[in-house]
């Protein structure tokens, strides 16, 4: 996976070449990712990153996301929803929010991404997920209004519910409050903007 080839861009999102995933993270080169958030009128969903992941193991993350390979179009990123969550959806079923940039510096890498953000109006139940365990060990959700307040910094904890699988296949239900430390460190206000867009543009909430 670290040797997969991705497009490399300058800060203006102009392509300047290609590189491996390992190289873009090592050198902080700008590259493209695909984000798909599952949202409905009441909830936003997060994946629990597998404890086997090299980066941010066990943290809560975008419902489904991944790197766009050099040979792929942006719409090809919809495959991540199938690969990670087992949901077979069509690119025409998702709503494009737009592109945002995100830069995360950790001890392991410099991650400079142009993120193509999509929202899937999720109307299924928990049992529709078939998780790719080496990538995703669980799925949780939070109420939209509570999540918006949390990601705007108005509250310090967020109530989540869902489930997670142990390595032995046992499934454990999750109902607990979490803090910012339990989330992958996104650009400030990013998730709040996703929620605002979904409420206003998809579900006509004010």
From TrEMBL:
InterPro entries reported in the protein's UniProt record: NUDIX_hydrolase-like_dom_sf, NUDIX_hydrolase_dom
Annotated signal peptide: none
Pfam families: NUDIX
Annotated protein name in UniProt: NUDIX domain-containing protein
Organism: Lysinibacillus irui
Domain Nudix hydrolase: 29-164
Annotated SUPFAM superfamilies: Nudix
């Amino acid at each position: 996976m670290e040797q997969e080839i991705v497009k490399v861009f300058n800060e203006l999102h102009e392509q300047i070449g290609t590189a491996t995933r390992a190289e873009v993270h090592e050198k902080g080169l700008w590259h493209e990712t695909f984000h798909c958030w599952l949202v409905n009128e009441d909830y936003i969903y997060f994946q629990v990153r597998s404890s086997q992941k090299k980066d941010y193991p066990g943290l809560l993350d975008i419902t489904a996301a991944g790197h766009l390979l050099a040979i792929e179009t942006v719409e090809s990123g919809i495959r991540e929803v199938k690969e990670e969550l087992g949901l077979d959806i069509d690119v025409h079923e998702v709503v494009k929010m737009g592109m945002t940039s995100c830069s995360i510096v950790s001890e392991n890498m410099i991650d400079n991404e142009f993120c193509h953000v999509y929202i899937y109006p999720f109307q299924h139940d928990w049992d529709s997920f078939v998780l790719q365990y080496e990538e995703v060990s669980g799925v949780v959700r939070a109420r939209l209004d509570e999540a918006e307040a949390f990601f705007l910094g108005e509250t310090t904890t967020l109530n989540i519910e869902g489930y997670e699988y142990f390595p032995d296949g046992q499934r454990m239900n999750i109902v607990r409050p979490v803090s910012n430390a339990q989330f992958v460190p996104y650009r400030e206000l990013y998730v709040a903007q996703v929620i605002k867009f979904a409420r206003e543009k998809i579900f006509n909430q004010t």
